[in-house]
Amino acid sequence: MSVISETTDNHEEIYAWIEQMTFSKPKKNLARDFSDAVFMAELLKRYYPRHVDVHNYIPGNSVAKKVENWCTLNRKVLSKLNMKLRKDEINQLANSQPGAIEKILTDLRIKILRDCNADRDNLYSEFNGSEKGETVKSVLNPEEIANKTVPRHVFVRLKQELEEKNDAISLLKQKVTHLESLMKFKDQRIADLSSQILKPADYSTTSRSGNLNVTNTLITKQRTKL
């Protein structure tokens, strides 16, 4: 296979990969779409969410704004992923030079694949697994990363831990329900006691008021006689 043919095949894979993505605006022309680095930031956010804050990248039409976005992405994200761009590469991307974005996306795709396999291997080693699933061969679809093969003993252990946590949550919910019932009972008891305390006081007040009325009546009668 010739170099040109191989390059064309690689580009077709990149186009198919990007075509499956959803971005903040419709895709029209790959070079121009990625020229302000916003699409690249959104793409990186899918695979390296902790490194990317898409709000740092404002769409722009001027070359200066596009270069600024690429420089920010280069400093904040790409350098941490060991994919730091040179100034001439940034200028090529900002000016929508043909082939520039395809090269960057090809490198990114390879890195995502390697990181994906490395994460999977770390998962196996953590559980001392001797069996390893088939190597992930394609990342054209971002959902494939979430569908890596997991050994059965790892799955069983994770399932058991999940069931134990669910049981603990269920027990805590029962305790909360019981405590809520106790609180309602105590509130009702307090209300009953308060009612019993207030009733004698009301009766005493009424009695005193009646006695005062009788006394006032007698005094009035005596004054009338005099």
TrEMBL record:
Residues 155-182 form a coiled coil. One of its GO terms (biological process) is regulation of cytoskeleton organization. InterPro entries: CH_2, CH_dom, CH_dom_sf, Spermatogenesis_Ciliary_MAP. GO terms for molecular function: microtubule binding. GO terms for cellular component: axoneme. Residues 8-113 form the Calponin-homology (CH) domain. Keywords: Cell projection, Cilium, Coiled coil, Flagellum. Gene3D superfamilies: Calponin-like domain (1.10.418.10). PANTHER family: SPERM FLAGELLAR PROTEIN 1 ISOFORM X1, SPERMATOGENESIS-ASSOCIATED 4-RELATED. This is Sperm flagellar protein 1.
